[in-house]
Design goal:
Length: 324
């Protein structure tokens, strides 16, 4: 239901933006509204999800409207209303390059990602090279397939939340997700010496962020002021309570994943080939210890809504009581 609510809300936003964009134009926008309504009906009746390109192009459209770039605005609207919904998760690049509007999609993805991640860092993005992409794509398929066997419930959660995986190369970021590119997980291409389990970890991690974004969209979770900063087990810098809550939510799922990997007869040996420590903070503690580090700080200092307290309790139960 959360994914459907997110998708329908986005389509309502797009209809509003279309009306605003054509406010001073003599051209009719009726066909665009009709197309959006048809897409909404498919989401409602056929249980299909919007590709993340809808979310990316929505962000790109708003940026170009603010910039007053009318030609680009109409181009984006024309393209958005011709997109279709689908059931299956897509490993992008293949889909992008086969599309007649590849250049428009390409610039929108890189523009939105660049704005999201490069505000405070000198981070560059580019599409994966053919050689590394082939290896990375196979690793993605393997990770998704293995996850179905390792944790069926978590796999189902990811299939609902994640609509696209985009393999890119970056000079810093290993994986990423964003509210503005909802449904999309970015993965840095693997080097030949990296194991496919690297992606198993990244997919679960980034999907957790997307899941929490959808819970947070309409309901407050944390009421602490953004100026309040706290130590995070995953980051060197002090984080606001909202960031620490994200870390706790992610860590709960990584603890569950690790527990199910090491007890699965087919996959228990792969644990030695990957590391779920997320050692950005130089913290070598086990992943479960990091969860309780974040959990303890939130319990002591967090000002949470009823929903926030419920999520916190559910994450604790996931880590302590869930059977493998």
């Amino acid at each position: 239901m959360l994914r459907k609510e997110m998708d329908l809300s986005l389509l309502d936003t797009l209809k509003y933006l279309i009306v605003v964009a054509y406010k001073n134009s003599s051209s009719s926008f009726d066909k665009h509204i009709e197309n959006i309504n048809e897409i909404a009906n498919k989401v409602k009746q056929e249980f299909k999800s919007l590709p993340s390109s809808f979310y990316v192009l929505n962000s790109y459209l708003q940026n170009e409207m603010k910039n007053g770039n009318a030609i680009k605005v109409y181009e984006i609207i024309e393209f958005i209303t011709e997109l279709s919904v689908r059931l299956d998760l897509s490993i992008m690049i293949d889909e992008l390059k086969e599309n007649d509007n590849y250049n428009l999609i390409s610039e929108s993805f890189l523009s939105v990602f660049g704005k999201e991640y490069s505000t405070t860092n000198s981070i560059e993005f580019e599409y994966s090279s053919c050689e590394n992409y082939s290896y990375s794509r196979q690793a993605t398929i393997k990770a998704l397939s293995a996850l179905e066997e390792i944790d069926e419930e978590l796999s189902k959660e990811i299939k609902v939340i994640v609509s696209d995986i985009l393999i890119l190369n970056s000079n810093q970021i290993n994986a990423g997700s964003s509210f503005f590119t909802y449904g999309l997980i970015y993965l840095k291409e693997l080097s030949p010496n990296q194991h496919w389990t690297t992606y198993l970890e990244h997919i679960v991690h980034e999907s957790a962020h997307l899941h929490l974004y959808s819970l947070w969209k309409n309901d407050a979770i944390v009421l602490n002021k953004s100026t309040e900063k706290f130590k995070s087990p995953l980051r060197k810098d002090l984080r606001p309570m909202s960031g620490l809550f994200h870390a706790m939510f992610v860590l709960a799922r990584l603890v569950q994943l690790e527990k199910n990997v090491v007890t699965h007869p087919k996959y228990m040996d792969v644990k030695s080939k990957w590391n779920v420590s997320y050692n950005n903070a130089g913290n070598n503690a086990p992943i479960k210890e990091k969860f309780f580090d974040a959990f303890s700080t939130i319990s002591q200092h967090g000002i949470l809504t009823p929903l926030g307290n419920k999520i916190l309790a559910n994450c604790e139960e996931m880590v302590t009581n869930r059977k493998s």
